[in-house]
Amino acid sequence: MRLETRHAAIVFADITNSTALFLKLGDVAASALEREWMGAVRRVVPRFDGTFVKAVGDEAMCAFPSPDTAVLAACEIQTVTRTEPFSQHAIQLHIGVHYGPVVVEDGDMYGDTVNVAAFLCTVAKANQILFAETTYSRLSAGIQAYSRPIFRTRLKAHPEETTLYQALWNLGDLGVTMSLFEDRARIESIPGETAGLLLTHRDRTLHMNARRHLLRIGRGTECDISINARWVSRRHAHIRLIGSDFYLFDESINGTFLRLAGGEEVQVLRNDFVLAGSGTISPGRKAAESGGGVIEFSRDRRSLYRP
């Protein structure tokens, strides 16, 4: 077993909404389509001096010697996917690219660079290729000219805020984008996330996103949402943005009762829970017994990451 550290540009390419694809085509046909698409990716990668590292379900992980070759390969993968329908079915991709040091072991790669590339792939929507400012700064001027700054965020496990860019692999996107580059100073005015998680208690609504990534709930007056009830602990729970998800962490004696829309009410006690979609949070007691202590929450993943 030999460990090696080197710099590489990591690309994760994933089929958008593959769950629906399996439901529509069935397991056998959808699996055949994925294999066909993965074969096309394997053929593209060497043309850009890259290495196909591995397939993880319907996601392809590749490595390239430079940000330029990685972004060009990602653009070609998107183009091939759009122009050559696989098994007579059109599919869409979302792709993340990140450049930095990686640890290489027995043909696999891991480390923070890999984690960030995977995170960017998760954040990207259909037909997007996303990369962060550190990768953008290492691109050649020609490729930078075909990139668009779209929003600011915090990368997974990174405290600092960064600008994310989208590669304009589809020339039809250029008309609405190139004006942004007439003045590079405009990048500073790009808005951060404008939504993410909305919490409403009584007549007050609080808004969480990458700028406000921590919120405390409890009986104490120092809490962001203060509920004056004997069954609520002074510091009952807190909600924290981690990566692309909002987690509720219970710190109380009586636990926190949560209900997702359409689901059963569950108790979280000294544990954590991902707040997905919409629902209610009731500290210390079930919602029906809380006497006005219920907090409503709702999420919009798209608005968390996009202006």
Description:
By secondary structure, this protein is of the alpha+beta class. The protein has 2 domains: 3-189, Alpha-Beta Plaits; 197-305, Tumour Suppressor Smad4 (Sandwich), CATH 2.60.200. The chain has helices at residues 18-25, 27-44, 67-83, 112-123, 133-136, 141-144, 301-305; strands spanning 3-15, 51-56, 59-64, 93-105, 108-110, 129-132, 147-154, 161-167, 197-201, 204-208, 214-218, 225-226, 237-242, 245-250, 256-260, 265-268, 272-274, 278-283, 295-299. Strands 1, 2, 3, 4, 5, 6, 7 and 8 form an 8-stranded mixed sheet that branches. The chain has a 6-stranded antiparallel sheet with strand order 10-9-19-18-15-16, with no helix packed on it. Strands 12-11-13-14-17 form a 5-stranded mixed sheet, with no helix packed on it. A hairpin with a 2-residue loop joins strand 9 and strand 10. It is elongated. Mean pLDDT is 84; it is low at 174-194 and 302-307.
Architecture blueprint of SSEs:
Layout (H helix, E strand, L loop, with lengths): L2 E13 L2 H8 L1 H18 L6 E6 L2 E6 L2 H17 L9 E13 L2 E3 L1 H12 L5 E4 H4 L4 H4 L2 E8 L6 E7 L29 E5 L2 E5 L5 E5 L6 E2 L10 E6 L2 E6 L5 E5 L4 E4 L3 E3 L3 E6 L11 E5 L1 H5 L2
